[in-house]
């Protein structure tokens, strides 16, 4: 029994020594990250846009090839469009907890960063040039300040969803047609207040469920930029589009902070550069294609209504209480809104 114990102890000693050598890299080398070991780092990007939307096109044509080429294959980018990884709320949570490395999101993160919600306040931005100048400047950085601490994520770049318009399955020509209109919106408080101002009935719903709801006439219409209306196919179950441009929807590239800090500085530089170029490309695509999208919808049989001055003025007046609600609900946003509106 004593001999057996000595043998057992000897074997145990060898095993422990082997484990020690393995833990130390076999020769005292520091532990290497995935990129140093030659293993590709997976960067999953989740969003809800359709395949042919400028958001997805920019990611496919700019972000993915740039990151993979300039990192020499150290980073592999996987793009998941069409809410493949769940609803926007779900992939936001995934990016926060690290199960998804990156996502394209928007105003829904206002529950964590109220200032981001300001960007979707009705009638805040005048046009694309104004929105781009604000969001790509110092104010854009100020709007997402504190994201790393509060959400465990960071913003790489601002992109654009576009100016939102209303589509309808029934005739819609004057402002009063909003009364009783069942309007699908994102599950976002500012949108609920916006719809109340219009006099319509708000129906919060994930975009992935909207086509079916329109088809089954559960709702009368929805509001989104022209690009989304076209790319999602929702025009197939709509007859009118009202060019309200009631609010501008920005998006942002949001990355998990722990993942980001796990990249060496060179890889961070590559990802950041690709994000900037992809975002710039997406802005360009979206704005340039807007008139083409309008013509496409007309060819598909939709009537595009451009509001007259009476309609526009009533729209402006309907949203003033909504703006005041926002300033009261989220202290400090009035000052930021004044800064945004002052940008020329």
Automatic annotation (TrEMBL):
Pfam families in the record: DctP
Subcellular location: Cell envelope
InterPro entries (UniProt xref): DctP_fam, TRAP_DctP, TRAP_DctP_sf
Keywords: Signal, Transport
PROSITE patterns to which the protein is assigned, alphabetical: PROKAR_LIPOPROTEIN
BP GO annotations: transmembrane transport
Gene Ontology CC terms, in alphabetical order: outer membrane-bounded periplasmic space
Major subcellular site: other
Keyword Transport included in the entry's annotation: yes
Keyword Signal in record: yes
Family assignment from sequence similarity: Belongs to the bacterial solute-binding protein 7 family.
Name under which the protein is recorded: TRAP dicarboxylate transporter, DctP subunit
């Amino acid at each position: 029994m004593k001999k057996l114990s000595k043998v057992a102890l000897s074997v145990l000693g060898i095993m422990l020594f082997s484990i020690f050598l393995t833990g130390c890299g076999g020769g005292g080398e520091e532990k290497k990250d995935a990129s140093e070991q030659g293993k590709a780092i997976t960067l999953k990007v989740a969003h809800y846009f359709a395949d042919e939307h400028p958001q997805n096109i920019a990611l496919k044509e700019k972000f993915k090839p740039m990151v993979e080429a300039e990192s020499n294959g150290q980073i592999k980018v996987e793009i998941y469009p069409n809410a493949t990884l769940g609803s926007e709320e779900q992939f936001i949570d995934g990016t926060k907890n690290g199960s998804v490395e990156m996502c394209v999101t928007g105003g829904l993160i206002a529950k964590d960063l109220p200032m981001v919600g300001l960007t979707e306040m009705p009638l805040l931005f005048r046009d694309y040039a104004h929105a781009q100048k604000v969001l790509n400047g110092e104010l854009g950085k100020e709007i997402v300040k504190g994201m790393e601490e509060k959400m465990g994520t960071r913003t790489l770049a601002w992109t654009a969803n576009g100016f939102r318009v209303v589509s309808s399955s029934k005739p819609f020509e004057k402002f009063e047609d909003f009364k009783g209109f069942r309007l699908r919106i994102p599950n976002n408080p500012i949108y609920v207040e916006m719809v109340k101002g219009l006099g319509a009935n708000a129906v919060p719903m994930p975009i992935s469920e909207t086509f079916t709801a329109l088809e089954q006439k559960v709702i009368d219409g929805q509001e989104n930029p022209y690009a989304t209306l076209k790319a999602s196919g929702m025009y197939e179950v709509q007859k009118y589009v009202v060019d309200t441009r009631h609010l501008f929807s920005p998006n942002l590239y949001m990355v998990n902070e722990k993942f980001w800090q796990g990249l060496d500085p060179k890889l961070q530089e590559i990802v950041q550069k690709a994000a900037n170029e992809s975002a710039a490309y997406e802005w360009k695509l979206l704005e340039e294609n807007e008139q083409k999208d309008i013509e496409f919808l007309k060819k598909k049989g939709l009537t595009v209504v451009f509001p007259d001055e009476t309609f526009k003025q009533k729209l402006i007046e309907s949203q003033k209480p909504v703006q005041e609600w926002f300033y009261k609900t989220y202290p400090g946003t009035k000052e930021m809104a004044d800064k945004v509106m002052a940008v020329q």
